Amino acid sequence: MARRRSLGPAIVIALAAAAGWATVELATWPDVQRLAIEDPRSTAFQQRWRERERAAGRSGELDWRPVPWPRISGQLKLAIVVAEDIDFFTHRGFALGEIKRAVADAWHAREAPRGASTITQQLAKNLWLSPSRSPWRKAREALLTRQLERHLSKRRILELYLNVVEFGPGVWGAEAAARRYFGKPASALTAHEAASLAAALPRPSAWHPGVDRSGYRRASERVLARMAAAGWVAQEIRRAAASP
Predict the structure, then answer these.
(1) How many domains, the chain?
(2) Which domain does 26 fall in, by range?
(3) Secondary structure of 10-75 in the HEC alphabet?
(4) Is 226:82 a contact under the CB 8 Å cutoff?
Protein backbone atom coordinates (compact mmCIF):
# COMPACT_ATOMS: atom_id res chain seq x y z
CA MET A 1 0.00 0.00 0.00
CA ALA A 2 2.87 2.37 0.85
CA ARG A 3 4.28 1.97 -2.65
CA ARG A 4 0.92 2.81 -4.25
CA ARG A 5 0.66 5.96 -2.13
CA SER A 6 4.14 7.03 -3.24
CA LEU A 7 3.02 7.01 -6.88
CA GLY A 8 0.23 9.47 -6.20
CA PRO A 9 2.26 12.72 -6.33
CA ALA A 10 4.09 11.58 -9.49
CA ILE A 11 0.80 10.90 -11.25
CA VAL A 12 -0.61 14.27 -10.18
CA ILE A 13 2.50 16.06 -11.43
CA ALA A 14 2.37 14.20 -14.74
CA LEU A 15 -1.32 15.03 -15.22
CA ALA A 16 -0.70 18.68 -14.36
CA ALA A 17 2.18 18.83 -16.84
CA ALA A 18 0.04 17.21 -19.53
CA ALA A 19 -2.78 19.67 -18.86
CA GLY A 20 -0.37 22.60 -19.06
CA TRP A 21 1.11 21.32 -22.31
CA ALA A 22 -2.37 20.86 -23.80
CA THR A 23 -3.34 24.38 -22.77
CA VAL A 24 -0.27 25.87 -24.47
CA GLU A 25 -0.85 23.82 -27.62
CA LEU A 26 -4.48 24.90 -27.86
CA ALA A 27 -3.56 28.54 -27.28
CA THR A 28 -0.89 28.52 -30.00
CA TRP A 29 -2.54 26.15 -32.48
CA PRO A 30 -2.82 27.77 -35.95
CA ASP A 31 -6.16 29.11 -37.12
CA VAL A 32 -6.23 26.99 -40.25
CA GLN A 33 -9.67 28.10 -41.37
CA ARG A 34 -8.58 31.74 -41.77
CA LEU A 35 -6.30 30.69 -44.63
CA ALA A 36 -9.42 30.31 -46.74
CA ILE A 37 -9.65 34.12 -46.88
CA GLU A 38 -6.26 35.40 -45.68
CA ASP A 39 -2.68 34.87 -46.88
CA PRO A 40 0.04 34.01 -44.35
CA ARG A 41 2.31 36.89 -43.36
CA SER A 42 5.29 34.58 -43.02
CA THR A 43 6.06 30.87 -42.62
CA ALA A 44 8.02 28.75 -40.17
CA PHE A 45 10.52 27.79 -42.88
CA GLN A 46 11.05 31.42 -43.87
CA GLN A 47 11.63 32.45 -40.28
CA ARG A 48 14.13 29.62 -39.79
CA TRP A 49 15.98 30.61 -42.97
CA ARG A 50 16.09 34.26 -41.89
CA GLU A 51 17.48 33.32 -38.47
CA ARG A 52 20.24 31.20 -40.02
CA GLU A 53 21.18 34.00 -42.42
CA ARG A 54 21.39 36.60 -39.67
CA ALA A 55 23.40 34.24 -37.46
CA ALA A 56 25.87 33.97 -40.34
CA GLY A 57 26.18 37.75 -40.49
CA ARG A 58 23.98 38.23 -43.55
CA SER A 59 20.90 40.43 -43.91
CA GLY A 60 18.30 37.69 -43.92
CA GLU A 61 16.31 39.52 -46.58
CA LEU A 62 14.20 37.10 -48.59
CA ASP A 63 12.56 37.48 -51.99
CA TRP A 64 8.84 36.72 -51.61
CA ARG A 65 5.99 38.09 -53.75
CA PRO A 66 2.71 36.17 -53.20
CA VAL A 67 0.27 36.32 -56.10
CA PRO A 68 -3.27 34.93 -56.57
CA TRP A 69 -4.14 31.78 -58.52
CA PRO A 70 -4.83 33.46 -61.91
CA ARG A 71 -1.32 34.99 -61.93
CA ILE A 72 0.45 31.62 -61.77
CA SER A 73 1.08 29.70 -64.99
CA GLY A 74 -0.98 26.58 -65.54
CA GLN A 75 2.27 24.94 -66.65
CA LEU A 76 3.81 25.52 -63.23
CA LYS A 77 0.73 24.19 -61.46
CA LEU A 78 0.94 21.07 -63.60
CA ALA A 79 4.69 20.68 -63.06
CA ILE A 80 4.39 21.00 -59.29
CA VAL A 81 1.56 18.48 -59.03
CA VAL A 82 3.18 15.81 -61.23
CA ALA A 83 6.54 16.30 -59.49
CA GLU A 84 5.39 16.49 -55.89
CA ASP A 85 1.99 14.80 -55.56
CA ILE A 86 0.36 13.41 -58.68
CA ASP A 87 -2.65 12.15 -56.68
CA PHE A 88 -3.25 15.58 -55.15
CA PHE A 89 -6.74 16.04 -56.54
CA THR A 90 -7.98 12.60 -55.46
CA HIS A 91 -6.58 12.05 -51.96
CA ARG A 92 -7.67 13.61 -48.67
CA GLY A 93 -4.23 14.73 -47.56
CA PHE A 94 -2.32 11.43 -47.46
CA ALA A 95 -1.27 9.20 -50.37
CA LEU A 96 0.23 5.73 -49.98
CA GLY A 97 0.52 5.37 -53.75
CA GLU A 98 2.97 8.25 -53.94
CA ILE A 99 5.31 6.55 -51.46
CA LYS A 100 5.41 3.45 -53.65
CA ARG A 101 6.10 5.56 -56.75
CA ALA A 102 8.91 7.45 -54.99
CA VAL A 103 10.65 4.20 -54.12
CA ALA A 104 10.20 2.86 -57.67
CA ASP A 105 11.52 6.08 -59.24
CA ALA A 106 14.56 6.01 -56.95
CA TRP A 107 15.27 2.39 -57.87
CA HIS A 108 15.19 3.07 -61.62
CA ALA A 109 17.17 6.31 -61.35
CA ARG A 110 19.70 4.83 -58.88
CA GLU A 111 19.16 7.81 -56.60
CA ALA A 112 17.92 8.40 -53.08
CA PRO A 113 14.09 8.36 -52.86
CA ARG A 114 12.41 11.74 -53.21
CA GLY A 115 10.06 12.93 -50.53
CA ALA A 116 6.64 11.27 -50.66
CA SER A 117 4.70 13.75 -48.55
CA THR A 118 1.62 15.18 -50.21
CA ILE A 119 1.37 18.84 -51.17
CA THR A 120 -1.01 19.36 -48.24
CA GLN A 121 1.45 17.81 -45.79
CA GLN A 122 4.27 19.92 -47.19
CA LEU A 123 2.16 23.06 -46.89
CA ALA A 124 1.44 22.31 -43.22
CA LYS A 125 5.14 21.74 -42.57
CA ASN A 126 6.24 24.90 -44.41
CA LEU A 127 3.69 27.12 -42.72
CA TRP A 128 3.94 26.00 -39.11
CA LEU A 129 6.46 23.24 -38.40
CA SER A 130 10.12 22.27 -38.68
CA PRO A 131 12.02 19.73 -40.81
CA SER A 132 12.34 17.52 -37.72
CA ARG A 133 11.19 13.90 -38.05
CA SER A 134 10.17 13.54 -34.40
CA PRO A 135 6.94 11.60 -33.69
CA TRP A 136 5.27 14.67 -32.20
CA ARG A 137 6.15 16.85 -35.18
CA LYS A 138 4.72 14.20 -37.52
CA ALA A 139 1.58 13.98 -35.38
CA ARG A 140 1.08 17.75 -35.55
CA GLU A 141 1.64 17.62 -39.32
CA ALA A 142 -1.05 14.94 -39.67
CA LEU A 143 -3.58 16.96 -37.64
CA LEU A 144 -2.85 20.15 -39.55
CA THR A 145 -3.06 18.29 -42.86
CA ARG A 146 -6.52 17.03 -41.99
CA GLN A 147 -7.61 20.55 -41.05
CA LEU A 148 -6.26 22.02 -44.29
CA GLU A 149 -8.14 19.45 -46.33
CA ARG A 150 -11.32 20.03 -44.32
CA HIS A 151 -11.38 23.83 -44.44
CA LEU A 152 -9.69 24.70 -47.75
CA SER A 153 -10.37 23.77 -51.36
CA LYS A 154 -7.75 21.94 -53.42
CA ARG A 155 -7.33 25.11 -55.46
CA ARG A 156 -6.57 27.16 -52.35
CA ILE A 157 -4.15 24.57 -50.94
CA LEU A 158 -2.21 24.49 -54.21
CA GLU A 159 -2.28 28.29 -54.49
CA LEU A 160 -0.82 28.66 -50.99
CA TYR A 161 1.80 26.00 -51.64
CA LEU A 162 2.97 27.65 -54.85
CA ASN A 163 3.36 30.91 -52.96
CA VAL A 164 5.33 29.68 -49.94
CA VAL A 165 7.77 26.99 -51.10
CA GLU A 166 11.47 27.75 -51.55
CA PHE A 167 12.70 27.64 -55.16
CA GLY A 168 16.28 28.66 -54.41
CA PRO A 169 18.37 30.30 -51.67
CA GLY A 170 16.13 33.05 -50.30
CA VAL A 171 13.68 32.78 -53.22
CA TRP A 172 10.18 31.94 -52.03
CA GLY A 173 7.10 31.39 -54.12
CA ALA A 174 6.37 31.19 -57.84
CA GLU A 175 6.42 34.91 -58.62
CA ALA A 176 9.79 35.61 -57.01
CA ALA A 177 11.29 32.53 -58.69
CA ALA A 178 9.95 33.40 -62.14
CA ARG A 179 11.31 36.93 -61.96
CA ARG A 180 14.65 35.93 -60.41
CA TYR A 181 15.49 33.13 -62.83
CA PHE A 182 13.61 34.01 -66.01
CA GLY A 183 12.90 37.74 -65.81
CA LYS A 184 9.16 37.29 -66.27
CA PRO A 185 6.00 36.95 -64.13
CA ALA A 186 4.87 33.53 -62.92
CA SER A 187 1.88 33.75 -65.27
CA ALA A 188 4.20 33.59 -68.31
CA LEU A 189 6.27 30.51 -67.43
CA THR A 190 6.69 27.90 -70.16
CA ALA A 191 6.58 24.13 -69.68
CA HIS A 192 10.39 23.83 -69.65
CA GLU A 193 10.77 26.68 -67.17
CA ALA A 194 8.05 25.23 -64.95
CA ALA A 195 9.71 21.81 -65.00
CA SER A 196 13.04 23.30 -63.95
CA LEU A 197 11.40 25.05 -60.99
CA ALA A 198 9.47 21.96 -59.90
CA ALA A 199 12.65 19.86 -60.07
CA ALA A 200 14.35 22.31 -57.69
CA LEU A 201 11.95 21.72 -54.80
CA PRO A 202 13.63 18.66 -53.21
CA ARG A 203 16.89 20.59 -52.66
CA PRO A 204 16.46 24.29 -53.48
CA SER A 205 19.77 25.37 -51.96
CA ALA A 206 21.65 23.28 -54.56
CA TRP A 207 19.16 22.84 -57.42
CA HIS A 208 17.61 25.78 -59.21
CA PRO A 209 17.66 27.31 -62.70
CA GLY A 210 21.20 28.29 -63.65
CA VAL A 211 22.76 25.32 -61.85
CA ASP A 212 24.48 22.83 -64.16
CA ARG A 213 24.27 19.48 -62.40
CA SER A 214 23.47 16.16 -64.01
CA GLY A 215 21.08 15.12 -61.24
CA TYR A 216 19.15 18.37 -61.58
CA ARG A 217 18.97 18.04 -65.38
CA ARG A 218 17.64 14.50 -65.10
CA ALA A 219 15.06 15.59 -62.53
CA SER A 220 13.88 18.41 -64.82
CA GLU A 221 13.57 16.02 -67.76
CA ARG A 222 11.54 13.57 -65.68
CA VAL A 223 9.14 16.32 -64.62
CA LEU A 224 8.72 17.45 -68.23
CA ALA A 225 7.99 13.89 -69.35
CA ARG A 226 5.41 13.47 -66.59
CA MET A 227 3.75 16.72 -67.61
CA ALA A 228 3.35 15.48 -71.18
CA ALA A 229 1.76 12.24 -69.99
CA ALA A 230 -0.53 13.63 -67.27
CA GLY A 231 -3.46 15.02 -69.21
CA TRP A 232 -5.87 14.13 -66.43
CA VAL A 233 -3.94 16.32 -63.99
CA ALA A 234 -4.13 19.27 -66.40
CA GLN A 235 -7.87 18.68 -66.61
CA GLU A 236 -8.17 18.75 -62.80
CA ILE A 237 -6.25 22.03 -62.70
CA ARG A 238 -8.61 23.56 -65.27
CA ARG A 239 -11.55 22.33 -63.23
CA ALA A 240 -10.07 23.88 -60.09
CA ALA A 241 -9.60 27.16 -61.95
CA ALA A 242 -13.31 27.21 -62.74
CA SER A 243 -14.32 26.63 -59.13
CA PRO A 244 -15.09 29.56 -56.79
Answers:
(1) 2
(2) 1-30
(3) HHHHHHHHHHHHHHHHHHHCCCHHHHHCCCCCCCHHHHHHHHHHHHCCCCCCCEECCCCHHHCCHH
(4) yes
Statement to judge: residues 25 and 130 lie in one domain: no
Residues 20 and 95 in one domain: no
Cβ atoms of 195 and 223 within 8 Å: the answer is yes
The structure's pTM equals 0.83
**198 and 228: one domain?**
yes
Tell whether 52 and 13 lie within a shared domain: no
Residue 24 has pLDDT above 50, yes or no: no
Compute the half-sphere exposure of residue 194: CA atoms within 13 Å on the CB side of its CA.
Answer: 26
In this predicted structure, the answer to whether residue 206 has a pLDDT above a threshold of 80 is: yes
Q: 91 and 14 share a domain?
A: no
> What span, in angstroms and rounded, lies between the C-alpha atoms of 196 and 208?
7
The arithmetic mean of pLDDT across residues 236-240, rounded, is: 95
Residues 6 and 88 in one domain: no
pLDDT reported for residue 20: 44
Q: What letter would DSSP give residue 179?
A: H
Residue 13 has a pLDDT of 57
Q: For residue 118, what pLDDT is reported?
A: 96
> Is the same domain home to 189 and 222?
yes
Q: Which pLDDT does position 108 carry in this prediction?
A: 58
Q: Does residue 89 sit in helix, strand or coil?
A: coil
Q: What is the pLDDT of residues 45-77, one digit of tens each?
A: 999 999 999 999 999 899 999 999 999 999 999
User: Do the Cβ atoms of 43 and 126 come closer than 8 Å?
Assistant: yes
Residue 93 and residue 188 in one domain: yes
